[in-house]
Amino acid sequence: MLIERLLKVALLGSEWVLYFLFALSVLSFATMFERWIFFRRHTDDLEKLRKELHDKLQAEDRIGAEKLLDGSKSFEARVAREALRWASAGPDAIGDVVESELARVKKEIERGLNLLGTLGNNAPFIGLFGTVIGVIIAFNQLGAAGQNQGAMGNVMAGISESLVATGVGLFVALPAVVAYNLVQKRIGDIETDAVALTKLLTAHLKANPAFGTLDTASSVEASGEHLVKSDTRELPSSPSVAGIA
Prior knowledge:
Layout: H1 2-10, H2 15-41, H3 46-58, H4 62-70, H5 75-85, H6 91-109, H7 113-145, H8 152-207, H9 217-231, H10 241-244
Helix pairs in contact: 2-7, 2-8, 3-4, 3-8, 4-5, 5-6, 5-8, 6-8, 7-8
């Protein structure tokens, strides 16, 4: 009884599987395009940034180093900037700050990664499911045709059409797998480059501990605002000449 009911469901056709795979393919390519735009917007010339940061550190220009990192749109600079702001706490504290900031960054750069991985692993099985349904329909038609040789051609055509679902499943899965691997590599590169920049900072800090006590751009701005407020305070009124007389 159960098998007969499942057979009736299978005989409804496998066309819906193709539509479902088509929707998944649109979602997959949209995610790939979004990730490509995202990483492109946060890409910078890291070799040039590293050289300029090294020059700023050698000159003990902490304000210039902070402004340099603020001007970069890369994730690596974002991590290094946060580490620089904690330079006064020492290298050990910087290591904790880097781990904390990298954890925050990974949430952004890993967005959409689970979808690509899921499609890459399961889209072929969805296509295979459509193929199995098509084969069931073909054999059902073969049984109904009996000795009718003319119906064999239609049965073979049905089997060949059912294999299309497997091909579509592979078409959805392969680009998703490639994109997943590329994103994983990009994440690894970001983490490696971010650590390299912060290692440059900690090395300089160990060689020159006084660097961590230098004023940052934010502290200088705050000091400037304080001086402006101090200069604009109302001065105490001096005694008038008439009163003295």
